[in-house]
Amino acid sequence: MKIFHITAVILLCLLCLNCRQNILTWPEESSSTRPWAYWWWMGSAVEEEELVFQLQQMADAGFGGVHIIPIYGTKGYEDQFILFAGHRWMRQLALVTDKARELGMDADMTCGTGWPFGGPHLSENESASRFLIEPFDARPGTIFNRQLKSDGKQLVRVAAVSDTISKNLTDQVRDDGFLTWNVPAGKWRVLAVYSQPTGQQVKRAAPGSEGPVLDHFSAAALKTYLNPLDEAFKNYNGTPVRCFYNDSYEVYGADWTHDFFYQFQHRRGYDLAQQLPALLNEGEKEYIGRVKYDYRKTLDDLLREEFTKNWAKWASAINIKTRSQAHGSPGNLLDLYATVDIPETESFGPALFDIPGLPDVHGYPEKSGHPDPLVFKFASSAAHLSGKQLVSAETGTWAGEHFKVSLAEIKPQVDLLFCGGINHIFYHGVTYSPRNEDWPGWLFYASTNFGPGNPFWQNLPALNKYISRSQAFLQTGQPDNDVLLYFPIHDIWQNPEGLLQPLTVHNTADWLTGTDFYAIAQFLWGNGFTFDYISDRLLESMQYSSAGLVTSDGICYKTIIVPQMIHVPHQTIDKLIRLASAGATVIFHGTLPEKVPGFAGREERQQKLQQSKAGINLIQQSENIYKAETGRGKIWVGDSLDLLLGYADVFGESFAKHHLCFTRRKTKTQSIYFVTNPGPLSFRGWLTLNVPADGGFLFNPLNGSGGTAKWRRDSRGQNQVLLSLDVGESLFILTSPSPVKAEPYKYIQPLEMSYPVEGQWELSYIAGGPECPKDTILSELVSWTDLGDKYQIFSGTARYRTTVIKPTVPCDGWLLHLGGVANSAEIRVNDEKISTIFCHPFVADLGNSLFQNENMLDIYITNLGANRIIDVEKRNPGWKKFYDINFVSIDYFPFDASEWSCQTSGLLGPVTLVPYHK
User: Using alpha carbons only, how large is the chain's radius of gyration in Å?
Assistant: First the structure.
């Protein structure tokens, strides 16, 4: 990590050196700055020549790497299936990793097939399991005589319980399963505890790898699971994969492991069998919640220590990193993400933006959810606090219905991920598909197709370049956030309702939305504060210095906020008090926590909590605001976050006031802002920055331009930068500690006049299918689907050509406004490429040097695959020939596009020229 920071500082110093020489350059791009893609191998029916060809395609399109995932196969190709991790499969892997390295790419691979981990070599005792408690009445003074064996279930404990006593009767169960017991006086019941496999099989497993899902709470089971991979890599001689991957935790209903009673007693200090009624929801809610807390905390411990840490240690021993999605698990996401080398979140479902031209996504199934940057922050916060350079995101999962997602929809999703702290994009994804397959080829059921079979592949390199330029900055330096927001996992675990508490990445109502934690995060996000989340475990390593709250990697924060909550370990309060005593400012929103969580030793622990709280001498400052002086620091308690953060000398950036989203990083001498405008209004004006500087630069990652920014100080001496951002646009601001001299940034000031591009358009179909329609002449711009049946089913690229007479207006350059575009465009003037435009505002800067008096204007428009798939569905519904789930729509019903209406396609206009000054 320190080496990376030194490299980043040198890189930015070189950038500034170049600026003093009047040359502006971007940070160097690499395989990690370029976007990667999930690469599904259906049945692993992959051939050497095709693998090399497809890797070359992806490299040429600007991909930085591939993530190999073997999954279910394609019907008719059974004789070509390759067994995962067999000798031939490993040879194919070596071919891919060697070729990727040759092309400047890299490769990750799922640590198995499909997801989650599992397979045929796992025994019943090593597979995911659940527990069941079956109660039996036992009348006093009688002999309880009953067979407790049950088909498909393993008896693990028998307890006789009364109101105050629990007896362990397990040893009294005979080999035939009968328990004979003389029931004493009192009110008794016999509780039989069973373990039972969940029966869940690996989802979307590759052929030959079908089998039960792994018991993620058992180190021994994990070792068995990894044994075949140990053997497979023992003689592997290819380029090593960069990372092993663990997908989102989708282990349904698993809440047990074979030695859970032992693990529970070892970790919690008491016998869970003595408190089984709580797991049956019997007793007071306080009691039930406390026992369930200990149960959930034990699952968290086992998932982190027995599975995640051991998996990461195993990979590290063979010099391979780990990349993992923790969401969906019953553990503390922050701690699980922090345990691996590259934490990964997920952008799942259609996103909501106020950007003109994007489809209305409110009609999509609500179960899909919508991407939420406050959820992304669990992965990015863990990366920041544990010193990880990269934090990745599965991007574009169910971004919309198949064949209907445009690059214009993906770009703002990527921007949202950037603002949430993500800096390593993984498209979801690309399917290996042989060239001789009829269109649309082999497809994965849940993704946006980022492969060559999607017409937008024509213009995908422009989005890839945008991402690579952006991530070159976002992977530089360190995160620069002011606020730590404590994640109150203990209230979640203490909930007396239910048993398992999965923390999912979408549909978060069960654990996130509606909490004070989420409300504070929304406040911070909406008011321009920079922040990360922190857990108890990550808090343990925090120290305070004159720079503020500091991680072991030297990342600094100004304050920590503890949301309104009921339960907290006394150790956490003690740590916060120690930090305050050293000089930190600690904020409690609402009131101080009241109780310690959990059952064992609660009285003693509660007493310690009360003693700690008693040392916080709060004095009222104003209505609902209290302060305690503690050593060299302060503790604030109250309701108004605005006031409390002001007392901590923490203030929001001004971007949020103008509905702009941003993230901030820093080096030793400079600050780096990424700023994007998600709508609904364009912005032009001066923005105040909360960092010291004497100047700075602006970089446009969409077109690669850059220059010195217009800079000034306001009446209070604060730095201000002039920004101009249309809806959907993004910029980087790079500050400088000293005045800079370089080419100025090109601030475009459109004149209040426009000139329509009139006349006829020659419309020619360049590439696509099922076949290219006849060329035609348009006197006005309309959707090409209005031109006839063959035009309605065409998906691909068409060229619009016309002659443009340059208006006689004195100006510095011209903007070409395309108006409506369905769905992306490449602009050429006089046979010279100007730009690729794939997102709002669909405006090209023509400059002036290329623009003659009479000019040939070519606009190449590429539509989506929706219209063509309508035709395919009607003629050949058998194209959906995949095993397992085959191919489904976004609502998980069988996919059928035959009744779709054709989508508007082409250049819709009006096309206008707008002069501008710089």
Answer: 30
